[in-house]
Amino acid sequence: MRDLNRKFNQDNGHQLDLIPESTNGDFVSAYHNDDEELIDPFCVEDNPHKITFEDITSAAFKIKCGIVNTPCVQSRLSDATGIDLYLKKDFLQRTGSFKERGARYALLMLSEEQKQAGVISASLGNHALALCYHGYKLGIPVTVVMPVLAPIMKIAACRQYGANVIVDGPDMGEAKRIALRHGKEKGLTYINGYDHPDIMAGQGTLGLEIVEQVPNIDAVVVPIGGGGLIAGVALAVKTLHPNVTIIGVESERCPSFYMARKTNRPTRATIDSTLADGLAVPMVGYNAFATANSLIDKLVVVKEEWIAIAILKLVENEKCIVEGAGATGLAAILAGQLDELKGKRVVLPLCGGNIDTTILGRCLERGLAAEGRLLKFTVTVSDRPGGIAELCRMLASIGVSIKDIMHERAWIMSDIFSVDVKVVCETRDREHATQLKNMLHQNYQRVVFGTSDNSTSHHLNV
Predict the structure, then answer these.
(1) Which of these, 174, 168, 122, lies nearest to 143 by C-alpha position?
(2) What is the C-alpha to C-alpha distance for residues 456 and 111, in angstroms, rounded to an integer?
(3) Which of 442, 427, 431, 430 is nearest to 379 (CA)?
(4) What is the spatial distance between Cα 277 and Cα 172, in angstroms, rounded to a whole number?
(5) What is the Cα–Cα distance from 12 to 443, expressed in whole angstroms?
(6) For helices 53-63 and 99-108, what crossing angle results, to 10°?
(7) Cβ-count burial of 144 within 10 angstroms (0-12 exposed, 13-18 middle, 19+ buried)?
(8) Sign (positive/negative) of CA torsion 37, 41, 43, 47?
(9) What is the pLDDT of residue 272?
(10) Between vectors from CA 91 to CA 90 and to CA 94, what angle results, nearest 5°?
């Protein structure tokens, strides 16, 4: 790995044109057609670097004084899922994610000249936070380029650690190009957040802790974004216990590893907005894919609603606030996609907890809705005195709680003596929700559930 650093120092390239500052003081790049020169020397497609188990053990020794050895405890969801679940709570790291492991090791492995010059990276949040924090602790200057869609909370946190934060680029692809160009101009070492060999080795220390904390493991279910975490964890676990099953999980809205396996090489995938924003990497790393692909026994792609349900379950049952990326492993189990694990001992790394407060609220509501515990419906009732009150009494009689209610008259054309009542209500579970639906259908002619425009009419026998 030191050879890689030497290669980086010898790679001078040619001067790139830059616009040094914009009117608001932020760095702005001049986009050119010479992007082929903006190559990360640690991540080369034609020469992928596979890390070794010795790299991971070296990382474990060197970072142990600066990283939290997080607990791995049995889950209260074990009985409900039929799986002996253990949760590795790595969201308890100082900056809220596993990214600290790789960031600290990558910084420690720099040469003295590189440490003095500083490092740069592009990140949506967790890697940037980890790099800024440990750069601050180790006295190494850090610059991070964050796309404009990065959470404001994470941008502010990076600045609190004294880092140079550049908010530029509409997405991660542009942010990375800006960071590489800026790094070449300023002589900074670029540290890829998921594909740098030292980053992967550092993430692998999570796997070492898991096998030390939980005996007789049958499987480890790992979220996949760029692939660095599963590469390190799979290598660590499989080296010590070859029979342990390694399962990777992605969101259906960012299936980059699935695409890589389909084509047998890292391939750019279409990325849509997702609750698991930490996994939204358009293409897995070359080094990560080369290291992890042969070690992954099964790959699962989960739907967004199950990620929301998993976040809800972790809050309710474990009192753990976990971001979407960290909840994907549980999502796959709850969705019934890993039923072969029933009766077995399984570890889930809860790898990040940096979820925006407003996003958390949306996730909880979506989880409740997906479980049938939050319902929205529109019902046409009589506009004569007591019509709406009768509906409310009916809901109360079966224990349904009204969360929001409104009515409108102006757009009811069929009957001047009717009113549409829109209700958002809470139920205990799906069975309770079914009871509510049956009651409404029996008592009202027109009921519309959810966002559907198609009403269901039921004529009463009178």
Answers:
(1) 122
(2) 70
(3) 442
(4) 11
(5) 78
(6) 90
(7) buried
(8) positive
(9) 84
(10) 100
Closest by alpha carbon to 106, among 24, 220, 198? 198
Which pair of structure tokens corresponds to residue 368?
């409740």
Q: Give how far Cα 188 sits from Cα of 45, 56, 106, 121, Å.
A: 22, 25, 14, 9
Those residues with Cβ within 8 angstroms of residue 262's Cβ, 6 or more apart along the chain or in another chain:
none
- pTM comes to 0.81
Task: Give the distance from CA 252 to its chain's centroid.
Answer: 12
More confident of the two residues 216 and 10? 216
Buried b (16+ CB within 10 A) or exposed e, 409-440: eeeeeeeeebbbbebebebeeeebbebbbeeb
Residue 446, φ and ψ in degrees, nearest 5? -125, 120
- Backbone dihedral angles phi then psi of residue 408, each to the nearest 5 degrees: -145, 145
Which of 212, 196, 200, 213 lies closest to 56 in space, CA to CA? 200
Nearest to 300 by CA among 344, 357, 348, 238: 348
Three-state DSSP state, 77: coil
Each residue's pLDDT tens digit, 417-457 = 788 899 999 999 888 999 999 999 999 888 988 754 333 33
Q: Tokens in use for 169?
A: 């680029």
d(CA 289, CA 104) in angstroms, rounded, equals 22
User: CA–CA separation, 286 vs 265, rounded Å?
Assistant: 8
For residue 269, how many other CB atoms are within 10 A of its CB? 21
Residue with the two structure tokens 């790291």: 93
CA dist 440 and 387 (Å) reads 14
Strand partners, 222: 248
Strand stretches in 307-417, DSSP E: 345-350, 374-382, 401-408
Query: Which amino acid, 169?
Result: G
Pick the more confident residue, 313 or 36.
313
List phi, psi (to 5°) of 424.
Answer: -110, 125
As a whole number of angstroms, the distance between CA 404 and CA 426 comes to 10
**Strand pairing class (219-223; 345-350):** parallel
Beta bridge partners of 120: 143, 190
Contact, 200 vs 231, CB < 8 A?
A: yes
The bridge status of strand 401-408 relative to strand 418-426 is: antiparallel
Is the pLDDT assigned to residue 155 strictly greater than 80? yes
